[in-house]
Design goal:
This protein has helices at residues 75-87, 110-125, 132-147, 153-160, 194-207, 209-231, 235-252, 257-268, 294-303, and strands at 2-14, 25-41, 45-50, 55-61, 93-100, 163-167, 172-176, 183-187, 273-277, 284-288, 307-309, 319-320. The chain has 323 residues and is an alpha+beta fold. The strands form 2 sheets. Strands 1, 2, 3, 4, 5, 6, 7 and 12 form an 8-stranded mixed sheet that branches. A 4-stranded antiparallel sheet has the order 9-10-8-11. Strand 3 (45-50) and strand 4 (55-61) form a beta hairpin. Helix 2 (110-125) packs across helix 4. The longest helix has 23 residues, at 209-231. The structure holds (3R)-3-hydroxy-3-methyl-5-(phosphonooxy)pentanoic acid. (3R)-3-hydroxy-3-methyl-5-(phosphonooxy)pentanoic acid is lined by residues 12, 16-17, 19-20, 107, 150-151, 153-154, 192, 194, 198, 278-279.
Length: 323
Amino acid sequence: MTTTISVPGKLILMGEHAVVYGRPCLVTAVNPRMIVKAEILNESVFKLEAPDVNISQYQKSITDIGSGEIPKEAKFAEIALYNFSQKYKIEKGINIITQSDFSSNSGFGSSAATVVGVMKAVAESLSVKLTEKELFDLSYKTVVDVQGIGSGFDIAAAVYGGTIYFKNTGEVTESLTADGMNLVVGYSGIKADTVEMVKLVSVKKKNYSSGIEKIFDNISGLVDEAKRAISEKDWVRLGTLMNYNQNYLEDLGVSTDKLNLMIEAAQKTGAYGAKLSGAGGGDCMIALVAPKNRENVSQAIKRAGGEIIEVSVNAEGVKAENI
Ligand code: PMV
């Protein structure tokens, strides 16, 4: 019996970096999704296939998971299984296959989606009922175990789906109604290193503490206003707030020339607002648009060297698929 789980990707709308320091952010779950398949085996081994990250025929004894050499690309899946096994006994073996429709290179949250998908797929195959909160907590622990840092906003998007106001490693996760929100997503062609970018900001914060804290506070204010703008479907206002947020991200030094070009191109061709999305240093920018402007803005982003990635926002959270 194979259990099939699908998990959405994510895009952060506002509040990146500041959210690492207790401020709020806004995140939306997106399709395309990641598919995770799990199958219980009679022999006591963990097998993993993850073609997106070039892992094939990886296997080790269930009793050894979480220890010894773990290839970088297998870490999120293996540590997810390990953390699950610390809470719920795994007496048999398990075969896991992960595959996403989104490129693992573009900042759509493939690590978070892998962790949530593996955790959920293993739980379902062993008939363990995890509450959403338990799934969030075990998954967040896994991300912190593997990469040392992370606010958990991407885990929240994967678990709960929709558009979320998120704060304090999940103490606040408020679902917002954001239908009618239209985004154009442009990929800069450069893979961002989230951990490096978070470190860069942490060094700045150490050296220029009061200035950087002020930037975080200002971003926090923008996020709170943006939450209201979303509930009022005031896209003009939301776009302006996104532009302001981008200015602060530039102040933090996480935007790039290429992202700036793509963002300006969108702003000049009628987007309500545009900004980078995620850690910066590469990955994607997003532009909030009226449907009638989508084509114009997309063409302008392409002329600035970006690749348009089609997404649908407000996607459903992790779920079992009947395939
Ligand atoms: O690079 P992404 O898309 O995973 O976004 C990172 C967002 C940060 O706020 C910089 C880090 C975090 O964990 O919140």
